[in-house]
Amino acid sequence: MFINPCVFWAFRSICKEDPGNLNAWANLGFVYDTQKRELDAEECVDKVSYLMGVNSGEDYQEETSLLAARCLAEQAYVYPYDVELDSDDNLRERLMSALSLYNKALHYGGHLIPTEEKQCWYFKMATIYVRLDQIIKNKDDSEYSRLFHYNKGLKLLKETLESERKQHK
């Protein structure tokens, strides 16, 4: 797989500008890994582990849990927008993975995530459920899976309505 050298430059410059950016380090590691640059990829993995507080004390754990949660939420946000999605099944899989990432983010962050930020994530999750509904409405088993997605989407929208942001109301 060919990776444009500008991708390396972009991620490296983000890491240099913002050394605590988990996603930039993770993405740079992924790019190195796809290019079979194991030592560089390993360095990025080590940096991500350090930033996430792996092998660190409890004092640092709350801060790293929130960082990890935000990292996962950022990945969840962009995950369904891959340019190489060529079918509804691929998109459905990506949407389900994005929901899984959001749920992990909510789990990692727990009570540390500010309410407004959490409601923003709920809104994005609800829109994913709506997109899933559009994909599965013509499937044979749609009556069962649509109800689940519909109910989850409504529950998340209800949580979002408690937001102070006008865009969520």
From TrEMBL:
<dbReference type="InterPro" id="IPR011990">
    <property type="entry name" value="TPR-like_helical_dom_sf"/>
</dbReference>
<protein>
    <recommendedName>
        <fullName>Tetratricopeptide repeat protein</fullName>
    </recommendedName>
</protein>
<dbReference type="InterPro" id="IPR042342">
    <property type="entry name" value="TTC22"/>
</dbReference>
